[in-house]
Amino acid sequence: MLLPFSEGELLNLPDCEITYVPDFLSAESADAYFKEFRETVTWQQDDIKVFGKVYPQPRLTALYGNNEKPYSYSGIVMQPQRFTPSLIAIKNQIETKTQVEFTTCLLNLYRNGKDSNGWHADNEKELGENPVIASVTLGQERYFHLKHRSKKELKYKILLKHGSLLLMQGETQHHWLHQIPKTARPIGERINLTFRVIP
Ligand SMILES: O=C(O)CCC(=O)C(=O)O
Ligand SMILES: [Fe+2]
Question: Where is the signal peptide (predicted)?
Answer without folding.
Answer: none
